[in-house]
Amino acid sequence: MGVFEIVAKDLGGRIGRLYTKSGVVETPALFPVVDPRKQEVPSEVLKRYFGQVITNSYFIYRLAKGGDVNVKRLLKWDGVVMTDSGAYQILRYGTVDVDPDEILLYQHKIGSDIGVILDLPFDYEEPYHSALLKVEETLRRARRATRLLKDLDMLVVAPIQGATYLDLLRRSARELSQMGFPIYAVGSPTTLLEEYRFDTILEIVLEAKMAMVRDAPLHLFGAGHPLILPFAVALGVDLFDSASYILYARDGRIMLRDRTLRLDDAKSEYLPCSTKLCQTPVKELREMPREERTLLIAEHNLAVLREELMEIRQRIHEGTLWEYLEAKARAHPSLYRFLKKLSKFRRYIEALDPETHPKPHGLFFYHDTSPSRPEPLRHFTRLENVDPPSKKALVVKASTKPYNRSWEYRYLKELVGERVHIIFYDPVFGAVPEELAEVYPLSQNEAEGESEEARARLYEWLNRYDEIYTYGVDIPLVGKAVRRLSSIEDARYIA
Ligand SMILES: [Zn+2]
């Protein structure tokens, strides 16, 4: 058994179990960031919501002057501890005064369960030539680290570099994948997150995921907002870390599942939530000593992040992650934009998505965003293998699903027998040949509106026939004449 076991899947998202020496992390999981120099939120509070934390080993290294420390004792934490290598400090201050091998070994020495190699991160504004140098240096460091892997009682994370330079990103993902690290990571440039440019971050994730080894767990650095979590999970991210719960708390920003609310902007008597924070009247919160309030908001933020992850897990089990993304996409235009754009990558998503779920469920379709989801594409692909049994097609709009049990079908079948191939018109799937009508999810869905692509695909499909008849559907000329039956009985005259 490997270190990561996948338990359930939906789209590219998965529920998994990551085995560390201190216990199992149930994924998708978030590691709250804890500052070893000043722990603002006590461990007991963190523990109510999360079984794992991440801290900065470079701070500990500096604090202890490279000496022997036990990270769990230091943090008063007995769950799983992940350590970062100080790469973020490079990003902010340009350099850290420690050797990359040394800081990796140090993470092991202090008892970290998951360590990260010291990469050379860069922001998305980095010029190409220096980005290239940093990617190459990180690959060199990773290669050197592989020699240490077997001696370390710690899972090691290899960060995939490249940011918005997709060629570098793909190269980094491919080359690192060949080195066999137990965990991979992608950085999410903090500036992008702060500017709510979720679509850019998600595209980076998607590109990295497409180029890397698929089954390995993927960590997304620094993306700790309930808005981005389900999208990142749907693309295949398993692990997150974030200091957002406390950073937001410090300036009175309250995370909600679909947005961020500033305490200053809260107008009602109470906040729209039921955590400890939110049971206190807003007026009292405003008058409270700052530190006390910060702690309460931080705890609320942790609770909301946990709730979001629980929702995501439930959605994966149900197989309704896509529906959840559609609902969530309305919360911010950049998410909506991303979801629509995902149609470009749907072949990839379709390949990751399990074809059937343990418990088949009804799907909801919306004309604007649902064409990006995997099921229509899967149907169009399946259609390519269907050989029409007749050169005559009758396109029908049936009143009930499954279409082949509708009264229209039974009636028409009596009249035309095998002379004519009956095709149902479906607003999402386009052409549904009679023999496929009961294939999941062709009859287990509820659609609002119709997709343009479904019509286009239907017209294309009709090119296979010499004679086309329709009943209840308007179809313009598709290369050849289309005869519309004015009443269902007229079907008997199709010779
Ligand atoms: Zn609350």
TrEMBL record:
Residue span, tRNA-guanine(15) transglycosylase-like domain: 12-333
Signal peptide (residue range): none
Single GO term (MF): zinc ion binding
Cofactor dependence: Zn(2+)
tRNA processing in keyword set: yes
Key words of the record: Glycosyltransferase, Metal-binding, Transferase, tRNA processing, Zinc
A single cellular component GO annotation: cytoplasm
InterPro entries: ArchSynthase1/Queuine_TRR, TGT-like_sf, TgtA, tRNA_ribo_trans-like
Gene3D superfamilies with a match to the protein in the record: Queuine tRNA-ribosyltransferase-like (3.20.20.105), Uracil-DNA glycosylase-like (3.40.50.10630)
Binding, substrate: D119
Binding site for Zn(2+): C273, C278
Cofactor notes: Binds 1 zinc ion per subunit.
EC class of the enzyme, as a word: transferase
Catalysed reactions listed for this entry: guanosine(15) in tRNA + 7-cyano-7-carbaguanine = 7-cyano-7-carbaguanosine(15) in tRNA + guanine
Active site: D84 (nucleophile)
EC numbers for this chain: 2.4.2.48
Pathway this chain belongs to: tRNA modification; archaeosine-tRNA biosynthesis
A Pfam cross-reference name: TGT
Function: Exchanges the guanine residue with 7-cyano-7-deazaguanine (preQ0) at position 15 in the dihydrouridine loop (D-loop) of archaeal tRNAs.
NCBIfam families, sorted: arcsn_tRNA_tgt, tgt_general
Descriptive protein name: tRNA-guanine(15) transglycosylase
Originating gene: tgtA
